[in-house]
Amino acid sequence: MARKCIAPLSASQAAPWHPSCVAEVMAGAILVVDDDVALADSLREPLASEDVQIESAVDAPSACVLLDGRTFCGLVLDLVLDDSSGFEVLRHLKKQGITIPTIVVTQKLPSYVREMLAEEQVKLVFPKPVEARLLGAVVLGLCGIAN
User: Fold this and answer.
1) Fewest C-beta in 10 Å: which of 5, 23, 80, 101?
2) Is residue 8 part of a domain?
3) What is the chain's mean pLDDT, rounded?
């Protein structure tokens, strides 16, 4: 079975690095999962100067395929998708043993959803609409990329 790469949340945090993972993780790629492609597009400009690649998916099945085929240093995830749910992506991560710093962006966040997110690897929740430069800066921080 292939070893899963784990990106550090900060330079001081210990992470199980494997030499074959370092170049791919350090290259900096963010996965944005949102049925509104404008979110991924809005992050391209603030992250371009840091050579961070943006991959995007509009539904959970597409996101899971991307997550299985590549290592990302961060995930920006909408919970409410057209034909699927962001929770499907979170369950997939857990099932596959993939650890990735995750930021949720959503319009509504009832208290029971907050409790569910606390059990997952979600680091932050941003209400929509979110300002792209602020979100970009936070994503860079979670990926350990100085901006």
Assistant:
1) 23
2) no
3) 77
